[in-house]
Structure formats: structure tokens, C-alpha cells
Amino acid sequence: MPEKHTSGRRMTESQAALVLLLPFLATYALFLVYPFFRGIWISLHDWNLMAVAFNPDAKEFVGLHNYERVMWGKDITWGALISPVQQVIGVLGFGLSIFLHRIGWVSKVTAVALGVAAILLFVLPGFHPAEGGRWYDRRFWPTVGNTLIFVGLTVPGVVVSALLLAAAVNRETRAMSAFRTLFFLSQIMSVTVVTLIWQIMFSPRQGLIANITETFGGSPIVWLTDEHLAMAAIVITTIWWSLGIAMILFLAGLQDISKDLYEAAALDNATGAKAFWHITLPNLKRTITLVIVLQVILQFQVFGQAHLMTRGGPNDSTQVLVRYIYQTAFRDSDLGRASAMAVFLFVIMGAFSVLQFVLGREED
Amino acid sequence: MKHLIIGAVVAATVFTGATAQEITLGRFFGACEDAGTDTKASSGEACIIQSIINAADAEIEGVSITTLPTDWGNYYDQIKASYAGGTPPDVHVMHRHRIPEFAGLGALADISDDLEAAGIDRSDWSENALAAVSYEDGIYGVPMDFHANLWHVNMDLMEAAGLVENGKPILPSSPEELLKHAQMVKAATGQNYLAADFAQFPLGVRLVLALIWQQGSNISDGVTASLNTDEAKAAVAAMTQLFDAGLADPQLNYADSQQAFLNGEAAILVNGTWVVDFYSAEAAKEEVGLDNYYVADFPTLFDTGATWADSHMWAIPASLQADEEKYQAALKVLAFINDHNIDWARTGHMAVRTSVLESDEYAALPHRSEYTGTAGIARDTPPSKRYGAIQDVLNRELQAIWLTGKKADVALADAEAEIQDLLDR
């Protein structure tokens, strides 16, 4: 507790706070704020990684050209039913957000967030090149799509499995604390080790999964070179890897729920799944929101799994945004274009951070 | 007395500290823990190169070498980042195909005037080897090898299919014959005819490229991309006919295709020169399925012979020339590697020095006489500063054909458009 009434010192409270914060602020400014603005600055230039290193004048200011080359194309038009599935879901989602708000199931903020997402889903997939037109970078939007699919599969996977695990190991026995440690262990491994383990697991010649399918008479599945299964393989690996931290957060949330509630519920004959549904879940709402938003921000930055397990393949089906940024910057030495993509990624993740901020402040 | 000893130790430390040049070295080829310093005893790319480096560290006076940890897949990204950060390794290996990119930016030291003083005789290099390290008017490295795609053959499977004559494998001379041979092997042994890494690294792509070159075509002329052609379609079709008939498996990656060949599950493995000594050693083992190993030049299925080839070479960053002593030390390391060209050739790679190529020791290397034609048919795609990106496009689109069923003409048209974008950038 700060002692408000100590007197006779020269520094006021806010001055002292500033002094104590200074080391952090300096580090933060040097290693986060400066590189961030520097990144935006680079994205406005035609900037070759090596050429500029040898000759600082080798860059050229091009304004928003990099953004145009990455995100836009020649003769791009918009139509209401170009990607019918996404766009119809968008319209339905918009209607649903109004409806849910009207009947009082969701708050205003949640309804607005849902509505905005639905509108984006309706508008964005409608852009397409007209006859004779083309995207300048034909890989960028499919890469964004792959990243969204990855996040869309991984985050629910992590949240649901971590929640179930947390509920299962939330007991004060020695065995359960051993399990807690065990489930958390995968989290501390580096991405290289994790992907190595899972590459062996998925290998059609020596893998555990192949051995199991063969025992049951099936032919081994070639996970990592199958267009439809490669992403699933990466998602499974990531869920296994990211479970730990989500589970710990859920455990903390679970231990905050008063035992009295469960005892009262038990008197009303609500135990097991019923108690989980009516007591645990409502009380964990905030933790769940926090875990979802943290996971979304984390998983948008997926790189190692796709880079090491599938190299983005087959046919780009596991190419994700950060890997594309990496290739553009280091393989192609095109730092300007890579920075433009990185700024785009920042905007997406920034939107989710704002969402978390808003939802976190929302009163129940 | 005590003071004298301490004084001597201090003096010795100062003395050696002043003369020993610390040279950092960057390379791929993988890690070898206990390579030792005997350059004649090691086997496999990683251990042979590390034994040469260890020997250089031990034998060159006043030079100590630190091998930096690098990784195959991201090697050039790492090297570029180190150049951009101003801390490149003092000596590093690279491929011939990267010279336009690195030398074009002024990253590499032009060593043409310093070779002689360093004891490197460039007149001993073959004409192609000199061309491999030359860019515009300068020499930007010391060549170490030529490497190329070969056909590695399991003679027992070929024999069973009746495809051996006079102790040599009978290889196809047309796409139709390729299919026929594949069917013969399947009928006689139940095994696949051909295996290669069609799913991971660009080994399968290099195979298709060879078939394009064999028809006198190429992926571009350096300015205009040309992949949506009859020649490219014919080259792709020559391979996909095997996949469609179940005579080759496109889903195997590098390790799996190699394992299939060593297990005796494929009559032919298309892979580089770098595994000849490794496969020879494996074939000699009792427990390995492959017993009777033979190496063949890439056969001509169309008009003229061609196989993908490249060159490994050692370069010095231009920035090192500012530090004369260090630069001289780096040159000594290059000279040492050049002197051990015969040891490196033991991997299966082709040597670059005429004196080595003509030596008895070289001719006596295992299987060496079986692929003498390869040097004459070596090819590569046109030089480009975007070579790496172009290779990735080819890899992605060609793999899409056999791994995801993408229509060949669509994939080739997409690849052509994207390579054109890269050439225009």
C-alpha cells in the first residue's frame, strides 16, 4: 500500500512514480515504440534489405505504393454475391446481432462487435478483379484467409480443451497436481522441438498415428502433404502446444469461484455437467473472454509450425501471414513490402486488443 | 622464478593474442559432432566438410576458426540478415546461383587479385568452375564442387524386371519407355519404379526442369517467363503418368523417399551427387534393403541430355577487405579448402580442379566411373537476383499438380504469371 502521509521528502508521489517507471518507459520506447514507427516508415519506402545496409541512400520514398501492391489490384470491382457463402453468413450475422440484442441475450457492445464483424464478412469477400483485371499480389489475400482459418480452428480448440482439462484437474489431490504439471509441460517447449515431435507423429512411415491406423487396417494418412489435412495437422500441433497457459488461466478462474455456490447448487440437485453449465461457465465468463482474446492475438502470429512442418504447402494451403512477411523480407529482401504486410497484421491484432479492452470494461 | 613464469605466461598470452586471427565461418550441409581433423577418414557431406574445417583450424598457423550454427532451410535468410546487420561471417559457403544477388549488391569481396598470393592456382580450375565464381569482371569466391541430379539405381530390382544389360541398368529414352519400364518393375517386383522428394525440397522440380531443358526450352530467358508451354506440359506429363498409374508416390518427402529407396521399395531414386558415398556405405550394410547400388547419369528422355546442376563455393564479405590481416587469414582458409578438393569429392560431388579430376585417386572413388556424363549435361535456370523466389514458385505450383490435383495448364499458367511478376519487380 502506498503511504500517502509520509512527509518531508522532496519528491511528490507522481514524481516518484515517474522515476520508478523510467527504466521501463525507456526500454519500451527503445525496443517497442521506436521499432514500430520505424516499421511504418520503412513500409512507405522501396527498401531492399541488403542494398540499404550497404548504401543508406538506396531506398526510395514511394508513399502508399507498397500497400497498393500488396492489397489491391488492377480493375478491382465489388459485387454482392461474389463469395456467396461468406457474404450470406455476413448478412445473417448482422441480422442475428440485432436480434440477439433486441431479446436481451447480448449487451450493446457485444452486439456492435458482432455486427461490425458481420458487415466486414459481407463487404470484404465482395472485392474481386473484373474481366482482364488481377490482384497485384495474388498470394496475399489467400494467405490472410489461411491465417483466419488457422485462428478460427485453433482458438476454439485451445479454449474448449483447456477449459475441460482445467475443470478435470481442479482438485487438490497429488495425482491432479502431477497432471497439471504434465499438461503445462508442452507449453515450455520451443517450437522446433514441438514441430519435430509432431512431424514424427504424423510421418506416414514411422509415425505413431500411422501405426495406429495400420493396426486397425487402414492405410497411413500422409498428413503434411495432403492439401486438406496439412492445416488440420498444424492446428492439432498448436492446440497441444498452447494448452498450458490457457489451462492455468482457467484454473485461476475456477479457484475464484466460491465453493458455496456448488454446495447450494448440489442442494438443488445440480451436480456434474449441470453444475458446470449453470455455475462454472457463467462465473468464468471474464476469464473465457480474456483467454479467447489473448489466444486470437497469439495465434495470428503463427509462424514456426507452418514454416517447419509444411513450409507453407502443399499448394500454399498452410501459408500464413507471418511466414509470408518473413519470406518477403528475407528471401526477397523486400523490406518495404514486408513492413506494409506487418502493419496490416498489426491493425488486425490491434482491433482484437481494443475489443478485449472494451469487453473487459463492460459491466455485467 | 615465480615472477619469471608469470611474466612468460603473460608474454605468451599477449603474443598469441596479437597474432591469432579469429575467423568465423558460416556453412550449411548439416551438423557433425565428432568430425576430427582427419580429412581422409570422414564420410558424408557434414562430416567431411567439418573435418576439413577442423584440420584448417589445427594446421593453419595463427588462424583459429569458429563454425557458426546455421540451419539448412533458412541459411540464406540468416546470411542476408547478418550482412544487413553488418556482421557477416568472415568466410561462408554459398551456391553459384546466389552470386548475381550477392555480388550484384557489392556484398562479396572480389578476390581475383589476391588468389595467387594466397596460393590458389586458378588456372587449375576447370573452365566451368571459373565461370561459376565469376560475375561481370570479378572473381567472388573459390569453387568447391559441381553437384547435379543423378539416378540412383537398385540393381536387384532392375535385374528382376529384366532391365540390366552387361552389368549396367537399361534406362528409358522416351516418356513412353519410362512408363513401360515402370510397369515392368511393378509387374516383376511389386515395387515402385521411381522415387524422389516430390513433396518438400525441389528435387522433383529439378527433375521436371531437366525434362524441359531436354526439349530445348526453359522457364524464362531472363526477361520473359515461358512456362505455359508444350514442352513444360510434356515434361510434367512424363512424371504424372507414373503417379496416375501408381508406379511412383508423389507424397514422399526427402527423408521418406530416401528411406523407400534404401528399403528396396523403389528401383530408382532421383537425388543429388551428395549422397553417393552415403548410399554406398548403406548398401554395404547387412540390414539395409538396398544391396546392389549403381549410379547413373540422368537419362535423356527427349532430344538432348540435361540435368539440373549447381556449384558450392566459398566467399568472403567485401567489408573484410578493410582489415588486411583478417582478410589474409580468410584467404588462407579458402586456400586450405581448395587444397582439399579431393577430400570433398569423396561425398560424390564432382571436383573443380583439373589436377584432381585427372588424378587416379579421383577415378578410384566409388561409382565415379558410372556418372562421368553428368558434367557434360549440367544445366540450371537463367541467373537471377530472385532465383530463390522463382524456385519457390516452381516448387509450389508443380507440387500443386501432383499433390493437390491442380490442372497442369492452370498451374503452369499461374507459375508463369508469378515468375513474370518476379522478373518485372
Provide the fold topology.
The complex is a heterodimer of chains A (364) and B (425).
Chain A lengths: L12 H31 L1 E2 L2 H6 L5 E2 L3 H7 L1 E6 L5 H19 L5 H16 L3 E9 L4 H30 L4 H15 L2 H12 L5 H8 L14 H27 L2 H9 L4 H12 L1 H16 L3 H7 L10 H11 L3 H27 L3
Antiparallel strand pairs in A: 1-2, 3-4
Chain B lengths: L1 H18 L1 E6 L18 H15 L3 E5 L7 H10 L6 E5 L3 H6 L22 H7 E2 L2 E2 L2 E13 H6 L3 E2 L2 E2 L5 H15 L2 E4 L7 H11 L16 H15 L9 H9 L3 E7 L3 H8 L9 E4 L10 E9 L8 H16 L1 H5 L8 H4 L2 H4 L10 H4 E2 L7 H18 L3 H17 L1
Parallel strand pairs in B: 1-2, 1-3, 9-10, 12-13
Antiparallel strand pairs in B: 3-12, 4-5, 6-10, 6-11, 6-12, 7-8
Helix pairs in contact in B: 7-9, 8-9, 17-18
How would you spell out the order of helices and strands of chain A?
Answer: HEHEHEHHEHHHHHHHHHHH
> What is the number of independent domains of chain A?
2
Shape of chain B: globular
Distance between the termini of chain A: 29 Å
CATH second-level architecture of the largest domain in chain A? Orthogonal Bundle
Helical content band of chain B: 40-55%
Number of domains of chain B: 2
Q: How many DSSP-defined strands of chain A? A: 4
Q: What about the largest sheet of chain B?
A: 9 strands, mixed
Mean pLDDT of chain B: 92
CATH class of the largest domain in chain A: Mainly Alpha
The overall pLDDT of chain A, averaged over residues, is 88
Q: Tell me the number of helical segments of chain B per DSSP (H or I, 4 or more residues long).
A: 18
